[in-house]
Design brief:
alpha/beta
Protein backbone atom coordinates (compact mmCIF):
# COMPACT_ATOMS: atom_id res chain seq x y z
CA UNK A 1 0.00 0.00 0.00
CA UNK A 2 2.89 2.36 0.69
CA UNK A 3 4.04 2.02 -2.91
CA UNK A 4 0.63 3.18 -4.15
CA UNK A 5 0.98 6.84 -3.20
CA UNK A 6 4.40 7.49 -4.85
CA UNK A 7 3.24 5.62 -7.93
CA UNK A 8 0.05 7.68 -8.16
CA UNK A 9 1.97 10.94 -7.74
CA UNK A 10 4.43 9.89 -10.42
CA UNK A 11 1.60 9.03 -12.80
CA UNK A 12 -0.06 12.43 -12.30
CA UNK A 13 3.26 14.21 -12.78
CA UNK A 14 3.86 12.27 -16.00
CA UNK A 15 0.46 13.26 -17.37
CA UNK A 16 1.00 16.93 -16.49
CA UNK A 17 4.44 16.88 -18.09
CA UNK A 18 3.09 15.26 -21.25
CA UNK A 19 0.53 18.06 -21.59
CA UNK A 20 3.26 20.70 -21.86
CA UNK A 21 6.25 19.23 -23.67
CA UNK A 22 7.15 21.78 -26.35
CA UNK A 23 8.86 23.17 -28.27
CA UNK A 24 5.99 24.10 -30.58
CA UNK A 25 6.27 24.41 -34.37
CA UNK A 26 6.95 27.84 -35.85
CA UNK A 27 3.61 27.96 -37.60
CA UNK A 28 1.81 27.37 -34.30
CA UNK A 29 -0.31 24.51 -33.05
CA UNK A 30 -3.54 23.17 -34.48
CA UNK A 31 -6.40 24.57 -32.37
CA UNK A 32 -8.98 22.20 -30.98
CA UNK A 33 -12.42 22.34 -32.57
CA UNK A 34 -15.35 20.32 -31.28
CA UNK A 35 -18.97 21.11 -32.07
CA UNK A 36 -20.20 22.87 -35.23
CA UNK A 37 -21.89 26.27 -35.29
CA UNK A 38 -25.67 25.91 -35.00
CA UNK A 39 -28.68 28.19 -35.01
CA UNK A 40 -29.37 29.86 -31.69
CA UNK A 41 -32.99 28.86 -31.14
CA UNK A 42 -35.27 28.34 -28.18
CA UNK A 43 -38.45 26.24 -28.15
CA UNK A 44 -40.34 29.47 -28.93
CA UNK A 45 -38.38 30.18 -32.12
CA UNK A 46 -40.65 27.86 -34.09
CA UNK A 47 -43.63 29.89 -32.87
CA UNK A 48 -42.05 33.08 -34.21
CA UNK A 49 -41.18 31.51 -37.56
CA UNK A 50 -44.73 30.17 -37.95
CA UNK A 51 -45.96 33.78 -38.03
CA UNK A 52 -44.09 34.22 -41.31
CA UNK A 53 -46.62 31.91 -42.98
CA UNK A 54 -49.57 34.04 -41.86
CA UNK A 55 -51.14 36.33 -44.44
CA UNK A 56 -50.64 39.96 -43.51
CA UNK A 57 -49.31 43.15 -45.05
CA UNK A 58 -48.88 46.78 -44.03
CA UNK A 59 -47.54 45.81 -40.65
CA UNK A 60 -46.14 48.63 -38.52
CA UNK A 61 -42.48 49.58 -38.40
CA UNK A 62 -40.68 48.62 -35.20
CA UNK A 63 -37.60 50.11 -33.61
CA UNK A 64 -35.89 48.48 -30.63
CA UNK A 65 -34.62 50.70 -27.85
CA UNK A 66 -32.80 49.76 -24.69
CA UNK A 67 -33.79 46.49 -23.06
CA UNK A 68 -31.30 46.58 -20.23
CA UNK A 69 -30.22 44.29 -17.44
CA UNK A 70 -31.59 46.02 -14.34
CA UNK A 71 -31.30 43.09 -11.96
CA UNK A 72 -28.07 44.48 -10.50
CA UNK A 73 -26.67 40.96 -10.28
CA UNK A 74 -22.91 40.47 -10.62
CA UNK A 75 -21.27 37.06 -11.02
CA UNK A 76 -18.26 37.41 -8.75
CA UNK A 77 -17.03 33.90 -9.57
CA UNK A 78 -16.59 34.82 -13.24
CA UNK A 79 -15.84 38.55 -12.84
CA UNK A 80 -18.82 39.68 -14.88
CA UNK A 81 -22.54 40.20 -15.07
CA UNK A 82 -24.79 37.29 -14.22
CA UNK A 83 -27.16 37.98 -17.14
CA UNK A 84 -26.64 38.85 -20.78
CA UNK A 85 -26.05 42.50 -21.62
CA UNK A 86 -27.31 41.95 -25.16
CA UNK A 87 -31.04 41.66 -24.55
CA UNK A 88 -31.89 44.43 -27.05
CA UNK A 89 -30.11 42.44 -29.74
CA UNK A 90 -32.08 39.34 -28.69
CA UNK A 91 -35.31 41.32 -29.24
CA UNK A 92 -34.16 42.37 -32.72
CA UNK A 93 -33.31 38.75 -33.60
CA UNK A 94 -36.68 37.58 -32.31
CA UNK A 95 -38.54 40.16 -34.42
CA UNK A 96 -36.54 39.11 -37.47
CA UNK A 97 -37.53 35.45 -36.96
CA UNK A 98 -41.20 36.36 -37.47
CA UNK A 99 -40.57 37.61 -41.02
CA UNK A 100 -43.48 39.95 -40.31
CA UNK A 101 -41.69 42.80 -38.56
CA UNK A 102 -40.48 45.86 -40.43
CA UNK A 103 -37.38 46.97 -38.55
CA UNK A 104 -35.51 50.27 -38.48
CA UNK A 105 -32.30 50.89 -36.57
CA UNK A 106 -32.52 53.10 -33.50
CA UNK A 107 -30.33 51.25 -31.03
CA UNK A 108 -26.95 52.41 -32.36
CA UNK A 109 -27.13 55.33 -34.79
CA UNK A 110 -23.47 56.28 -34.70
CA UNK A 111 -22.57 54.74 -38.07
CA UNK A 112 -25.77 55.75 -39.95
CA UNK A 113 -25.51 59.34 -38.70
CA UNK A 114 -21.84 59.42 -39.65
CA UNK A 115 -22.86 58.30 -43.15
CA UNK A 116 -25.34 61.17 -43.41
CA UNK A 117 -22.77 63.66 -42.16
CA UNK A 118 -20.17 62.47 -44.69
CA UNK A 119 -22.77 62.73 -47.45
CA UNK A 120 -23.59 66.31 -46.41
CA UNK A 121 -19.88 67.09 -46.64
CA UNK A 122 -19.78 65.71 -50.17
CA UNK A 123 -17.35 62.96 -49.23
CA UNK A 124 -19.51 59.99 -50.25
CA UNK A 125 -20.56 58.65 -53.64
CA UNK A 126 -24.15 59.06 -52.41
CA UNK A 127 -25.66 62.54 -52.15
CA UNK A 128 -27.31 63.87 -48.98
CA UNK A 129 -30.62 64.22 -50.85
CA UNK A 130 -30.95 60.43 -50.94
CA UNK A 131 -31.42 60.41 -47.16
CA UNK A 132 -34.55 62.55 -47.19
CA UNK A 133 -37.05 59.67 -47.16
CA UNK A 134 -35.83 57.63 -44.19
CA UNK A 135 -38.62 55.44 -42.79
CA UNK A 136 -40.03 56.46 -39.43
CA UNK A 137 -40.95 53.93 -36.78
CA UNK A 138 -44.50 53.34 -35.65
CA UNK A 139 -43.60 51.64 -32.37
CA UNK A 140 -40.54 51.37 -30.15
CA UNK A 141 -39.92 48.33 -27.95
CA UNK A 142 -38.12 48.96 -24.67
CA UNK A 143 -37.86 47.27 -21.29
CA UNK A 144 -35.54 45.49 -18.91
CA UNK A 145 -34.60 42.26 -17.23
CA UNK A 146 -36.04 42.97 -13.80
CA UNK A 147 -35.55 39.82 -11.71
CA UNK A 148 -32.97 37.12 -11.11
CA UNK A 149 -33.97 35.07 -8.08
CA UNK A 150 -31.64 32.37 -6.84
CA UNK A 151 -32.65 29.27 -4.90
CA UNK A 152 -36.40 29.43 -5.32
CA UNK A 153 -36.11 25.75 -4.48
CA UNK A 154 -32.92 23.87 -3.67
CA UNK A 155 -32.85 20.28 -2.46
CA UNK A 156 -30.22 17.65 -1.97
CA UNK A 157 -28.76 14.86 0.09
CA UNK A 158 -25.27 13.53 0.86
CA UNK A 159 -24.03 10.43 2.61
CA UNK A 160 -20.44 9.58 3.53
CA UNK A 161 -19.20 6.54 5.44
CA UNK A 162 -15.51 6.16 6.19
CA UNK A 163 -14.66 8.78 3.58
CA UNK A 164 -16.68 7.16 0.80
CA UNK A 165 -19.98 8.55 -0.36
CA UNK A 166 -21.83 10.81 -2.72
CA UNK A 167 -24.81 13.02 -3.12
CA UNK A 168 -27.16 14.84 -5.44
CA UNK A 169 -28.85 18.20 -5.42
CA UNK A 170 -31.23 20.23 -7.54
CA UNK A 171 -31.83 23.95 -7.73
CA UNK A 172 -34.47 26.18 -9.36
CA UNK A 173 -33.94 29.88 -10.10
CA UNK A 174 -35.91 32.29 -12.25
CA UNK A 175 -35.43 35.29 -14.52
CA UNK A 176 -38.08 37.91 -15.37
CA UNK A 177 -38.56 40.40 -18.20
CA UNK A 178 -40.77 43.50 -18.37
CA UNK A 179 -41.16 44.92 -21.86
CA UNK A 180 -43.37 47.62 -23.34
CA UNK A 181 -44.48 48.91 -26.74
CA UNK A 182 -44.29 52.71 -27.12
CA UNK A 183 -46.16 54.62 -29.81
CA UNK A 184 -43.68 56.74 -31.77
CA UNK A 185 -46.41 59.26 -32.58
CA UNK A 186 -48.01 59.84 -29.18
CA UNK A 187 -45.49 58.24 -26.77
CA UNK A 188 -48.41 56.26 -25.35
CA UNK A 189 -47.77 52.73 -24.10
CA UNK A 190 -50.50 50.56 -25.65
CA UNK A 191 -49.06 47.15 -24.68
CA UNK A 192 -46.93 45.69 -21.88
CA UNK A 193 -45.63 42.18 -21.24
CA UNK A 194 -44.32 40.84 -17.93
CA UNK A 195 -42.91 37.31 -18.08
CA UNK A 196 -40.77 34.99 -16.02
CA UNK A 197 -39.12 31.65 -16.58
CA UNK A 198 -37.86 29.18 -14.03
CA UNK A 199 -34.54 27.47 -14.73
CA UNK A 200 -33.53 24.04 -13.46
CA UNK A 201 -30.17 22.62 -12.49
CA UNK A 202 -29.10 19.13 -11.36
CA UNK A 203 -25.83 17.87 -9.88
CA UNK A 204 -24.60 14.42 -8.86
CA UNK A 205 -21.25 13.82 -7.18
CA UNK A 206 -19.25 10.97 -5.68
CA UNK A 207 -16.23 11.33 -3.41
CA UNK A 208 -13.64 8.98 -1.98
CA UNK A 209 -11.26 10.07 0.79
CA UNK A 210 -8.52 7.78 2.03
CA UNK A 211 -5.51 8.28 4.29
CA UNK A 212 -2.39 6.33 3.33
CA UNK A 213 -0.11 6.81 6.26
CA UNK A 214 -0.16 10.56 6.83
CA UNK A 215 -1.17 11.33 3.21
CA UNK A 216 -4.75 12.12 2.20
CA UNK A 217 -5.78 10.87 -1.25
CA UNK A 218 -9.05 12.26 -2.61
CA UNK A 219 -10.99 11.18 -5.69
CA UNK A 220 -13.99 13.17 -6.95
CA UNK A 221 -16.41 12.42 -9.76
CA UNK A 222 -19.70 13.91 -10.71
CA UNK A 223 -21.97 15.39 -13.30
CA UNK A 224 -23.69 18.75 -13.53
CA UNK A 225 -26.50 19.35 -16.03
CA UNK A 226 -27.89 22.86 -15.87
CA UNK A 227 -30.37 24.57 -18.12
CA UNK A 228 -28.41 27.54 -19.55
CA UNK A 229 -29.31 30.75 -17.79
CA UNK A 230 -28.98 32.87 -20.94
CA UNK A 231 -31.23 30.42 -22.81
CA UNK A 232 -33.87 31.30 -20.22
CA UNK A 233 -33.32 34.99 -20.97
CA UNK A 234 -33.69 34.45 -24.73
CA UNK A 235 -36.79 32.33 -24.11
CA UNK A 236 -38.66 35.06 -22.22
CA UNK A 237 -37.58 37.57 -24.88
CA UNK A 238 -38.96 35.42 -27.69
CA UNK A 239 -42.19 34.77 -25.83
CA UNK A 240 -42.52 38.50 -25.19
CA UNK A 241 -42.08 39.28 -28.90
CA UNK A 242 -44.57 36.53 -29.76
CA UNK A 243 -47.14 38.18 -27.51
CA UNK A 244 -46.51 41.55 -29.15
CA UNK A 245 -47.07 40.08 -32.60
CA UNK A 246 -50.19 38.13 -31.63
CA UNK A 247 -51.96 39.86 -28.75
CA UNK A 248 -50.97 43.40 -29.74
CA UNK A 249 -50.91 43.24 -33.57
CA UNK A 250 -53.60 40.58 -33.76
CA UNK A 251 -51.76 37.90 -35.74
CA UNK A 252 -53.26 34.46 -35.05
CA UNK A 253 -51.63 32.57 -32.22
CA UNK A 254 -51.01 28.84 -32.19
CA UNK A 255 -52.57 26.93 -29.32
CA UNK A 256 -49.28 25.14 -28.63
CA UNK A 257 -47.47 28.49 -28.38
CA UNK A 258 -49.77 30.19 -25.91
CA UNK A 259 -48.41 31.53 -22.64
CA UNK A 260 -48.66 29.12 -19.71
CA UNK A 261 -50.81 30.88 -17.13
CA UNK A 262 -50.31 30.03 -13.42
CA UNK A 263 -52.31 30.90 -10.33
CA UNK A 264 -49.50 30.45 -7.82
CA UNK A 265 -49.76 33.98 -6.47
CA UNK A 266 -53.57 33.97 -6.51
CA UNK A 267 -53.58 31.03 -4.13
CA UNK A 268 -51.51 33.06 -1.65
CA UNK A 269 -54.08 35.85 -1.73
CA UNK A 270 -56.77 33.36 -0.85
CA UNK A 271 -54.71 32.28 2.17
CA UNK A 272 -54.29 35.87 3.31
Amino acid sequence: MRLFVPAAIAAVALVVTACNTGPYPKEGVQPAFSFPVTSNDTPYSQCLRALGEVQGNHLPVFAVGEVADKTGQINYDENGYALSQGVSEMVISALAKTDKANLVERLDLRIPLAEVQLAEQGRLSRSADEYTDLPASDFVIAGALTELNYNIVSEGAQLFIDGIGGGARTVVINVALDMRVISSRSFAVPFVVSLQKQIYGFEVEANVFRFFGDTLVEFDAGRIRNEPLQLGVRSVVEMGVYQIMTEFLGLPASESCRLVETDHMASYLEQL
